[in-house]
């Protein structure tokens, strides 16, 4: 793969890339963003870089307008206009301040034109109306902005849900809200303001007018929607409501038009969850994957702190949820972190030495879910870790050393234990669903994976340690945020909305808590071995 | 008669035809039309018509940049040799804020004010609020004028007066204008004045103590 080398005051960064994206898009996936105020169409002229070495191609007409001859002679260019095809060395002339909101990973882009649902007809109140899809997750909030008359996603953002300041898991937040109405209001304001900030970042950096947004569609897990609405969130603390529909839609979502800066007549649509533990995010994911379109059995696993699994057997959609903990998202581990710049996302073992790959080629700051899967699979194959989760005697007490960084990055025994639990929760969930549907893993035509891993997961390694059923790896499909993709369909297509409502009637929920042999299955799944 | 001439100017500006635009402007002046009328009925009308082409779907940068260049040449006809002016009035600071690279309107404002004897300090386009305020601190102007064409600058506009007051710069008035700001109210933008056109801006400045002739 060709590499773009970015020269910064702090040192050099190497960004390998697949040709086909602009230099700006490449930078946008990292923490080194260039200043921008348009969608990368050469209009604002702010995204200036200097080419130090390599062939960046001929300047475009837009560049000739913004850069004079002297600047062009010095190698000044506009990052959005350059489509690198081979190695380049670049200095950034105008760096953007860091933001809590990042561009959606490029992997999510491949979906842009694939949606199978027909578009909504809009009676334009304006020349070019926009719509926004939001996935309100426990850990992350993701947004995608679309033009409603064309068929493209114009831009997207994701960032941490600011409610994390109150508690990283759903229960802490629900409990805080239930104890004190003031806290409930605070939690709601945190999300409302978070969404406002993300939209603002979108508007400012892409030069998009938020007042052109005439429709906003939001999906989320049940707790997040209840906290946003401020309604019946206390019910979610009681297990008896988990399998029941919760009345948690806001009385008047239009009150958010103003703080979010939308068109005054914009329509805000919150997609209702199915039950306490099946949010509209899961349903949206099933929709986007076209999971139920054929009679072929298919499984969707959405990895997260709370992982959801949905199995289609040809007639029924079996859905369950397993709180495996945030190991896949990199939380709770000694050196864990989300799949962000600085995270080790892939690990190979060469002659007893680990060779880690780091997102955005920064100094490693930690290890994310896919890196962890690779690491554990490698340790097992090198006999440094047993399938029970015990390190070999030669491994020092402080754990396995992986890389030097700002601090040493290690994997401890406790980390392995946390990983095993998260893996076992998912394995058990899948097994129970298959059993209820009377299927075996070999019957599955597809396994769709969404969530934390994104495109980085090494499927064979995941199978080697039993995280995924042992079927032909070609049948495993990797996606980023499936809920957001589904929400985009719902935003754009009334047919998708009808389809979603059909899904509601086809769904049977399985409560793992009421599964008699859960303990046995969980124990079996704790082993780090092929299932 | 004027109408037909004006129509030709508008067309030339839209086409980005610099030479014709300049010629038409001369003719309109010769026909006795005021600069004010040429700007509002000619230049601004042309830009409004270009609006549609500036949308995401059908954006043609070159077209609009050429139109921009034609506008600037027509302005030079209307306000020749502004650089040689001797300022006889107070100072006005102008800027387009961070993320906003539109400066045609701001430049018109600059020419109108300069022609009337004001000393204009131009902070340029894409100017961070903090730099604008630092300049205000240095130059002690009668007013700062913000030209906003893109709605994302609104939150920045709201900060200007508060930040200046915090530094004790309470005498300096804050003015706003441009397509993205002119529909707003002075309360919502937290400014002292909002104007439709460059001339509204001039009239307002003239009412300020130390601003009148
Ligand atoms: C020319 C133009 C450009 C040129 C700018 C060239 C330049 N050097 O200025 C170029 C091609 C670079 C450009 C780029 C973009 N543009 Co543009 N552009 C326009 C266009 C067609 C005309 C604007 C203009 O110059 N008007 C003429 C001047 C004379 O009018 P004015 O600025 O309002 O000024 C007058 C008065 O308002 C007043 N006034 C002005 N300032 C002040 C200040 C004070 C204090 C007072 C009292 C009065 C006052 O006096 C002036 C004379 O009377 C408009 C469409 C439109 N009709 O407005 C879009 C428009 C402004 N652009 C737009 C956009 C979105 C962009 C882009 C982001 C492209 C894109 N679609 O992705 C980029 C990047 C811009 C950025 N980040 O800043 C949008 C803004 C949407 C919004 N509301 O947020 C518009 C409205 C088009 C649209 N409908 O989509 N653009
Ligand atoms: S010109 Fe490159 S981002 Fe605007």
From TrEMBL, chain A:
**UniProt-listed InterPro entries:** 2Fe-2S_ferredoxin-like_sf, 2Fe-2S_ferredoxin-type, ATPase_NBD, Beta-grasp_dom_sf, Corrinoid_activation_enz, Raco-like_middle, Raco-like_middle_sf, RACo_C
Question: Any idea what this protein is called?
Answer: DUF4445 domain-containing protein
Q: Where in this chain does the record put each 2Fe-2S ferredoxin-type domain?
A: 2-96
Q: Which Gene3D superfamilies match?
A: 3.10.20.30, Domain of unknown function (DUF4445)
User: Which source organism?
Assistant: Candidatus Chloroploca mongolica
UniProtKB/TrEMBL annotation, chain B:
According to the lineage, what is the superkingdom?
Answer: Bacteria
Coiled coil segments of this chain: none
User: InterPro entries this protein is in?
Assistant: Cbl-bd_cap (IPR003759), Cobalamin-bd (IPR006158), Cobalamin-bd_sf (IPR036724), Met_Synthase/Corrinoid (IPR050554), Meth_synthase_dom (IPR036594)
Q: Establish whether keyword Metal-binding is in the entry.
A: yes
Pfam families listed in its UniProt record: B12-binding, B12-binding_2
Does the keyword Metal-binding belong to this entry? yes
Q: List each copy of the B12-binding domain by range.
A: 89-213
UniProtKB keywords: Cobalt, Metal-binding
Q: What is this protein called?
A: Cobalamin-dependent protein
């Amino acid at each position: 793969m060709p590499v773009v080398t970015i020269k910064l005051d702090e040192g050099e960064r190497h960004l390998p890339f697949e040709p086909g994206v602009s230099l700006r898009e490449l930078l946008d996936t990292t923490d080194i963003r260039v200043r921008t105020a348009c969608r990368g169409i050469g209009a604002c002229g702010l995204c200036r870089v200097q080419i130090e070495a390599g062939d960046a191609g001929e300047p475009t007409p837009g560049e000739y307008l913004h850069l004079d001859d002297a600047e062009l002679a010095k190698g000044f260019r506009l990052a959005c206009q350059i489509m690198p095809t081979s190695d380049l060395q670049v200095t950034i002339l105008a760096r953007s301040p860091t933001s809590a909101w990042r561009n959606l990973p490029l992997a999510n882009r491949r979906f842009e034109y694939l949606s199978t649902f027909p578009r909504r007809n809009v009676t334009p109140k304006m020349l070019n109306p926009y719509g926004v899809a939001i996935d309100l997750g426990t850990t992350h909030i993701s947004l995608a902005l679309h033009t409603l008359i064309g068929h493209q996603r114009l831009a997207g953002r994701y960032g941490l849900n600011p409610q994390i300041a109150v508690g990283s898991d759903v229960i802490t937040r629900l409990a805080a809200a239930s104890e004190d109405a003031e806290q409930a209001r605070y939690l709601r304001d945190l999300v409302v303001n978070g969404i406002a900030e993300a939209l603002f970042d979108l508007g400012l950096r892409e030069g998009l007018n938020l007042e052109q947004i005439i429709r906003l569609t939001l999906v989320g897990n049940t707790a997040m929607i209840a906290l946003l609405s401020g309604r019946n969130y206390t019910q979610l603390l009681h297990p008896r409501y988990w399998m029941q529909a919760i009345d948690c839609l806001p009385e008047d979502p239009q009150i958010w038009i103003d703080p979010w800066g939308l068109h005054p007549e914009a329509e805000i649509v919150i997609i209702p969850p199915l039950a306490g533990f099946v949010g509209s995010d899961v349903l949206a994911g099933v929709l986007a994957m076209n999971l139920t379109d054929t009679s072929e059995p298919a499984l969707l696993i959405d990895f997260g702190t709370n992982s959801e699994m949905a199995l289609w057997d040809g007639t029924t959609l079996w859905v369950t949820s397993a709180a495996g903990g945030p190991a896949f998202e990199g939380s709770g581990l000694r050196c864990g972190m989300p799949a962000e710049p600085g995270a080790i996302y892939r690990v190979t073992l060469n002659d007893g030495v680990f060779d880690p790959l780091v997102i955005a080629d920064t100094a490693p700051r930690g290890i994310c879910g896919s890196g962890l899967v690779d690491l554990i699979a490698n340790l097992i194959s090198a006999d440094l870790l047993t399938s029970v989760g015990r390190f070999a005697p030669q491994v020092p007490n402080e754990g396995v050393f992986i890389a030097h960084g700002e601090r040493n990055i290690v994997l401890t025994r406790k980390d392995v234990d946390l990983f095993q639990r998260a893996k076992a929760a998912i394995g058990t969930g899948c097994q129970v669903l298959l059993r209820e549907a009377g299927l075996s893993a070999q019957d599955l035509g597809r396994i769709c994976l969404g969530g934390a891993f994104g495109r980085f997961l090494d499927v064979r390694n995941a199978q080697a340690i039993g995280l995924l059923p042992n079927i032909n790896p070609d049948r495993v499909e990797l996606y980023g945020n499936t809920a957001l993709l589904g929400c985009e369909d719902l935003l754009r297509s009334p047919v998708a909305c009808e389809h979603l409502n059909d899904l509601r009637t086809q769904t049977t929920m399985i409560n793992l808590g009421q599964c008699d042999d859960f303990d046995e299955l969980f124990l079996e799944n704790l082993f780090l071995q092929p299932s | 008669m004027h109408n037909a001439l004006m129509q030709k100017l508008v067309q030339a500006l839209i086409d980005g035809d610099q030479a014709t635009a300049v010629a038409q402007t001369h003719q309109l002046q010769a026909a006795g039309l005021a600069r004010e009328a040429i700007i509002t009925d000619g230049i601004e009308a042309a830009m409004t018509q270009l609006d549609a082409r500036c949308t995401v779907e059908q954006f043609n940068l070159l077209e609009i940049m050429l139109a921009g260049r034609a506008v600037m040449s027509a302005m030079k006809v209307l306000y020749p040799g502004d650089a040689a002016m001797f300022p006889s009035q107070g100072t006005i600071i102008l800027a387009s804020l961070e993320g906003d690279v539109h400066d045609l309107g701001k430049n018109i404002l600059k020419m109108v004010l300069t022609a009337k004897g004001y000393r204009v300090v131009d902070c340029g386009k894409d100017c961070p609020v903090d730099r604008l305020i630092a300049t205000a601190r240095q130059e002690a102007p009668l007013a700062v004028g913000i030209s906003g064409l893109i709605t994302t600058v609104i939150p920045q506009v709201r900060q200007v007066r508060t930040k200046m007051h915090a530094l004790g710069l309470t005498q300096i008035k804050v003015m706003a204008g441009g397509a993205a700001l002119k529909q707003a109210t002075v309360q919502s933008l937290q400014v002292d004045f909002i104007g439709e056109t460059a001339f509204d801006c001039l009239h307002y400045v003239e009412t300020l103590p130390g601003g009148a002739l």
